[in-house]
Fold each of these.
Amino acid sequence: MATPTQATPLAIHGGPKAVTLPDGERWPFVPEAAKKRINALLDAGIITIADGSGIVAEFEAAFKRLVGTKYALTMNSGTATLHSAYFAAGVGPGTEVLVPSYTWHASITPVLHCAATPVFCDIEPDTLVIAPADVARKVSSRTRAICVVHTWGNVVDMDPIMAIAKEHGLIVIEDASHAHGATYKGRPVGSIGHIGCFSMQGAKAVSGGEAGVATTDDPELFDRMVFLGHFGRGPKGEGNHTFDALGDMSLGTKYRPHPFAIALALSNLERLPELNQRRTRNYAFLNDCMRDIPGIETVEPRANCVRGGYLEFKFKVSRSVADCVSVDTLERAIATEGAPVTKDRYSNMNFTYGLLHKAPLFTTFDRRTLGGCFYDPHSYTGPSDKTVTLPVTEDVCTRLLSTLAFADVDEEYLRQIADAFRKVMTNLEQL
Ligand SMILES: Cc1ncc(COP(=O)(O)O)c(C=O)c1O
């Protein structure tokens, strides 16, 4: 590996860029199979499916095979799957849901739509996923559910989470939106908790453009999710027929997906093993190149777990470096070297309002003023939320850098990315 000398001027000072190769990244692209499937639907005039038949049934069968659950229910977004999961879990007024703060906001905001209160938990510094010890500390008599997020494809330590849930009679919801195809001790994510929720939006590993899928082994949880948002799948459907007496009207929310999105998702699901294999190989290679760079800490997979999905690759800057140089400055310097590096989006939610447990929606804003399901007086704990501190999350999130979940690049390009990090980290005095 080329090791830049101390004297090399950084690219931000007009020096040569460390990355000279084009990235060549082609994922995501629309597979030919998706075009064929969507054209076939168009030719047959199938532009909506209410009863879960056809391409929807085909996708759900394939997803059940991947995750190993009895049920899979496609929806029009990952957010819809999370709302359905919380509703199915009996999350309601006066109840609390334990959640990580370090996640996309849609893991949490549906809790509010059930008139319940999210209670924020800390993460593990090594894996960036929810810390079971903090979950155990925050269980109260109001807790109804735990939402764990397999962030950036790294798998949550599910055994202690399930033990806490068992002890207190809680439902565990796995938000596996970043982790399609990941496993914990040989078990697919989405099958370990009571419900799995997978976004299939945009750049997700199994993408339908805009779509989601929920998984469960429990017929009643499945029925409750169907009843919330799937007019037309009711009485005839699978499950325990919990709501047969109510007919197939459902509660009126419409969460079924567009069949074209499911055709695209099915075609992407077929490529998932290849995508995961490429990303795992590339992340391991990049981590190998980065491990000896001073001031850089890699985010390694948990032992006995297979990482999947990824969405983004993450690196930590050491505390001692972050105390002297901000990640903004490092990001600028490394990006100017030609590496596709950004600050981490969730550390400052989508580059706008800081960590979620500090966001106005959960702290200063009085949600009761919104009316509707937000009115329930039990659902508002605003002022006290201001005092929530999550030491690990707040530390780690000042020192995270992000790059793409590379699937389609060669090793020389990855080596050049590591060179960009090395060049900047060994020339900090130039910043
Ligand atoms: C962790 C996580 N949960 C939930 C969602 C929401 O999914 P969707 O955008 O499909 O509604 C996302 C989307 O990015 C996500 O990253």
Amino acid sequence: MSGPAAGVIARRVGIQMPIPPRQVTRVRLHGADSPDAVLDDALATWFAAPHSPTGEDLLELSLHGGAYVSTQVMAALVAAGAVPALAGEFSERAVRHGKMDLLQAEAVADLIDARSHAMHRAALVQLSGALSRRLLALREALVEVEALLAYDIDFPEEDDGPQPRERVTAAAQAVLGALDALGATMPMAELGRDGVPIVLAGAPNAGKSSLFNALLGDARAIVSEIPGTTRDALEAMIDERPYPWRLVDTAGLRDTDDRLERLGVEVSARWLARAAVVVVCAETDDALDTTSTAVASATRARLVLVRTKADAIPSARADAVALSAQQGTGLEALRAAIREAVTATNPAPPEDQPIVTRARHAAALSSARAEVAAFVAAWEADALPAPVAGTHLRAAITALEDLTGAIDVEDVLTRVFRTFCVGK
Ligand SMILES: Nc1nc2c(ncn2[C@@H]2O[C@H](COP(=O)(O)OP(=O)(O)OP(=O)(O)O)[C@@H](O)[C@H]2O)c(=O)[nH]1
Ligand SMILES: [Mg+2]
């Protein structure tokens, strides 16, 4: 519970305020102003403004588990004057009181939502303020270009001035390069969130679903000796580094008269087109040739060749991973081969460097980039008077400020925080 009335409301539900700040205190909670209606024997921690995560007086309650107790206590707090928080309202207040900037608040949401090592790492780096510092440095660099420009405007006839035009151009170009480098990290966040599509493909009955299950360590897909068992593509995420894998089991590839199965086969073709890596499965050495030729014509992905059911039919091929999903052999070799194929096409995010994680960031960076580029073009062509060219720099600076929330833009704040889950 956060806000200036937190202490008063706490007293109404039975907490003997003041309790020592930043210390866990055992409290007996009751209904609003009704000491007989005991609700829970709980723990309370008090954080006095401004030394709290929101910058306001803040009370944290630890209740006994279960929905009933928390609902009752929540109702008592509301009856005593509290208001349920909107989605993201705690983080929003933290931003408003200067406890963190907008990018850090987004990182809180990302940390909670993180489902992979990659997203977890990116969120922690962003929470530490690394992205904010990077953007602040770019903003400073643009302000410096503005200053060079102002000098040119104020003292155009100076002996040793105006500032050499090249110096302005070079400074703006440097910012352009840095904006590009940062913008180029967006696909890394997408891979971290959605995973690298790894598609299992092969003829019906080749053992794809069995392999899918073995890689997951879970019987997710139906396996049977009847060819054409899998019809819908099945997906599962495996948390790998540097990026999670989005493993896709598909319907066997073949021409078929069964209408349902044909739909499944068409889905497979779509997945092949979107795959980053295709694991080509076949149960004999000869079949592996036919299958990999067919797959290669349907995808631009890297191929990893697999000889399935090696327990039953030994493989003589050196270019394929021989494995048995049933006995669990060869799986480590396959994982290593997939890992290699993934890193060959998707460079890992730079260690401990911020990356751009949201469409909001990418949009602001690209609008800043467009403004700086427009400035450089006008400046180099000498097409516009310096003050006019300078308006592009201002616009770029504003775009970067919007990103960190350095200037208080109501609609940006609201838009960002309403996507949070309640209570954060
Ligand atoms: N001996 C042996 N049999 C296997 C192995 N993996 C799968 N099988 C058998 O091969 C048959 C087909 O396996 P699935 O995993 O359903 O094959 P699939 O490629 O998914 O088949 P569709 O979904 O019909 O395209 C089943 O009877 C499995 O038990 C293995 O490693 N060794
Ligand atoms: Mg299957």
